[in-house]
Amino acid sequence: MTPIWIAVIGASVTAFLNKYVGHSVPERWLNKPRFMRINTLVPIVLLSALVAVQSFADKKELVIDQRAAGVAVALVLLKYKAPFPIVVIGAAITSAAIYNWF
Amino acid sequence: MDRTGISVAFTVGLYGAAFGAAAVTAGFSILQSCLLSILLFSGASQFAVVGIMGAGGSALSAIATATLLGFRNALYGLQMAPILKVTGLNRLLAAQITIDESTAVSTLQDNEADRKRGFYVTGVGVYVFWNLFTFLGALGASAIGNPSVWGLDAAVPAAFCGLVWPRLKNKLQFIVCGLAIALALLLTPLTPAGVPIITTVLLAVIFGWKK
């Protein structure tokens, strides 16, 4: 089995366990203030780290290329409350323009 | 309320197209991309799996990151259980569609019957559109040779930005976001791919520990 298959099946199993556990355990097991505070921050750190790596990493090197420009445009569009498809398309057009013409 | 549920479902479905394209760009087959949407069915976790595998990370770091991201669904389950009161097979089905959107629409309703209905209409709606658009996005991206030519290489991190942005509501959260970016970039040249991302969970623990 290739690593991609292992990731697909493994992550699907744990995702379902997460969902099912919530429906099945008593509330007091999970509803703890410290735990809730950490859990609010978990998606923020993981997703921010993913943005950073996908924008600036080329294998193990850090680079500034057309992706950074695309992401910068995405952030501006988000700041002005643009809907999701516009954000993604704006980033793609910017990045493609720089990649193809410079 | 049905209209809210359906329009949420359709909008979220468009993220599905971005996901399908991202998955294929990261080296997943169309089948693997669609299976993630059918089985895993939680946007942020799915994007994390393809992002980490695409960067050359290990399956273990992809699974660990996706699992931590999916833990919020357990908390949604806690919220939904007393409203849905389901057992057996129905609980398995309800669990699968326990995600950000179904819980959000449900908890906005002001009576028990609407909360139940809101959950199912939104959950099933998102499931249908998310899977349909994943397939279309994957199909579209596989017709494209070099992802950079079409800007797909920037569309993926832009999609992540769209997932993080609405979560940043106070100063602490902005600071933690900035630190996570700095830590991930610092670790990128030093550690195997995937490690820089999962390591940032330490920041969540440190900053969430004390009030």
From TrEMBL, chain A:
InterPro entries: Brnchd-chn_aa_trnsp_AzlD. Keywords: Membrane, Transmembrane, Transmembrane helix. The chain crosses the membrane at residues 38-57, 82-101. Pfam families: AzlD. This is Unannotated protein. It comes from freshwater metagenome.
UniProtKB/TrEMBL annotation, chain B:
It holds the Pfam family AzlC. Keywords: Cell membrane, Membrane, Transmembrane, Transmembrane helix, Transport. It is a multi-pass membrane protein. One of its GO terms (biological process) is L-valine transmembrane transport. Its main location: membrane. It is found in: Cell membrane. The chain crosses the membrane at residues 12-41, 47-71, 119-141, 147-165, 172-187. GO terms for cellular component: plasma membrane. Belongs to the AzlC family. This is Unannotated protein. It comes from freshwater metagenome.
